[in-house]
Amino acid sequence: MQKTLEPNALTSGDTGHVLLGSLSRELRRHLLFTLGRDEIDSDPNYCFRAAAIAVRDRISRDWRSTREQVDAANSRRVHYLSLEFLLGRSLNNAVLNMDLDDDMREALQQLGVQWEEVVEQEQDAGLGNGGLGRLAACFLDSCANLQLPVAGYGIRYEYGMFHQLIEEGRQVEAPDHWLRDGNPWEIERPEDTKTIQMYGHTERYLDADGKPHSRWVGTHDILAVPYDMPIPGYRNGTINTLRLWKATATDAFDLNEFNAGSYTESVAEKNNAEQISMVLYPNDASENGKELRLKQQYFLVSASLQDVLADWVKNNGDDFTEFGKKNCFQLNDTHPACAVPELMRLLMDAHQLEWDEAWKITTECMAYTNHTLLPEALERWSVGLFGTLLPRVMEIVNEINERFLSYVAAEFPDDPELLKRVALIEEGHNPHIRMAYLSIVGSFSVNGVAQLHTDLLKSGLFSDFDRIYPGKINNKTNGVTQRRWLSHCNPALRDLLNESIGTKWEADLEEMTALVPLADDAEFRKRWRAVKLGNKNRLADYVQQHTGVDFPSDALFDVQVKRIHEYKRQLMNVLHVIHLYDRIRRGETAGMVPRCVLIGGKAAPGYHIAKLIVRLTNSVAEVINKDPLAKNWLRLVFFPNYRVSAMEVICPGTELSEQISTAGKEASGTGNMKFMMNGALTIGTLDGANIEIREKAGAENFFLFGLDAAEAVATRQNYDPNAIIAADPAISRVMELLESGQFNGNQPGVFGELTSGLRNPGDQWLTIADLRSFIDAQVKVAETYEDPELWDRMSILNTANSGWFSSDRTIQQYADEIWHVKPVGK
Ligand code: 26Q
Question: Is there a domain that residue 27 lies in?
Fold first, then answer.
């Protein structure tokens, strides 16, 4: 489709400092002049880019005024430091937040292209692994919604989370070069470039007054160049900033090499520097201790702290007395934990503060969030590696450790073992820094991400620190943004809600309780059901398109999507599917409902067992989906390349949310909250935030099963999975089917490690211990599903009571109880 363009169509009626015409005119202008298309056409990719730039133009005025207001307010500011920000797509989000939805649809219509098709053109910004990275993105959205002066700091990875392909049932990783076609949302700010030191050695020297200082010399320097992304608030004029750093080589370094006559080597060195921001590390135990990962962490931390300090000096000169009161750094897990010694270093070495002043400031402004209960997942860095890469920072860590241990020795003289247990440096022939302990000692607040998680941190992993610093460990139960996870991804439900209870819930999810009485309204339930059916059809199309498997929309849509990990027990889900298949083959279908089971998620590339679980899921799916006996009862798919934009289709169409981790292992979970908001019922253990979901939804609206955290601990003492299998005929048959090679294709023994793991008395994940209870709970699910009025009532009550799980609530608690910041706004 071609259209001619009148020259005067480009002149804006607005004579202000930003010339914005109608969106339609802006799209045409950007297609022609910004993107250099020869004619106005409807190529959806070019339309996406034109639309994004047009929206960005509308954002820029508010962006500047937000910056000015925050500067003028001179209030406390928060800097959210995270190695991950899993933003997903931004166009739909920006358009809805800026209230441009209708105009944009119409403008694109005029170009002859569908909004839905244009939205699909955008690559996900996959700069995160899973929960922790997506939490950071939801938090930024909520901070902007609440008009809080919070900036995100992260790394502008050239390659995000790998793309997952499934070949012959196996996961294959492909690179995610998300920046290939450019990123219309970012603005490079070369004037704020920072220099990052690495390697070299330290020296002592005396200043003019004869005072001793340290300096870090002979370093290899790297440049950090910032790229800013706008974070629009919800229709409130606030635009916050996410600043992402890209690594490049310094010119000075190039010049040295050049003068030494090695021109090519100097250009190659550029490459070396750029490695640092090249790729996001997958959450992978086999990647632990890699030097490049430590470089990434230090690079982010040093650049961000220098940025904040430079801004401080610009406004306050070198008076740092108020710095700790006016700034807060929230550490997203221990990944940015170097911030503690790095702020000390910058204050002492670059700004001449004494240790005690610098320590006071540092511990006034650092706060740490923990995201795991698995002891093996706590970060540790070898002192040898750390000291070589960051010699000056290592000296400071050593001094923090010595001072901390003297304090503990003085305060707790009765407990001689305590010092060894809490030392920041774990001694041994290869000593390691315990990054969680460093973070706790250097922070004024340490928080867990769900009530159970926090309770278990206090009584377990961090119990010594809870005694040393009473009150420091606190809880902030996670949340998710209802703008993306309801308004944007489920427009049909949004419209029904807006018609029934108004629109307040979009900015304040507690308003959702207005739905409670409607659960008893049969007419409303009918409309609720129709919305779910529409979303199931959309999901079924999506599944068909990506797997070729047909999901009939009258079946129960049963979904488990999350990273593949043993503790999350995707394997137990597959065992249940095999059990259903066994019942079908035996003709025992009484009480059964037709079910479509979807499992999706990425396995870390080096996590062998997780990859085997992916493979088993695909093998079981292949057998079941081609068996005519199963056709009317059961489908199973492994959904490839699960990511943020896939969840936006999956979660509205889901009826049953699988949250089945071994109790005491999942810190919180956040997918569980997205499903609840969208009216799915949960089958789950008493783990992480499931406990709070059940409390809010009501126990009668939740399918509970399995051991609780304390029972799991007790069960491990004398666990005998083989006895459980032998005593339960249905479970015996499931194991028999698996072990007989029914699902192996022509590869005998491929799944042997999975079955032997299940039978191992040392199995940490207690899958067999919980399987009977899981199967029984699934029978209750089926019974309930056979009563649609009951199911829909429960579904409505889940959405109605999901207010607590808005990240707006979470962020309000961070703001009130940790950050002590207030809104800055119109
Ligand atoms: C470790 C070493 C080397 C490279 C990478 C990593 C790494 C990267 C990412 C380790 C962990 C992560 C991510 C962890 C994560 O997503 N945790 C989840 O955080 C959610 C938000 O709080 C919780 O809801 C989940 O329960 C928790 O598993």
Answer: no
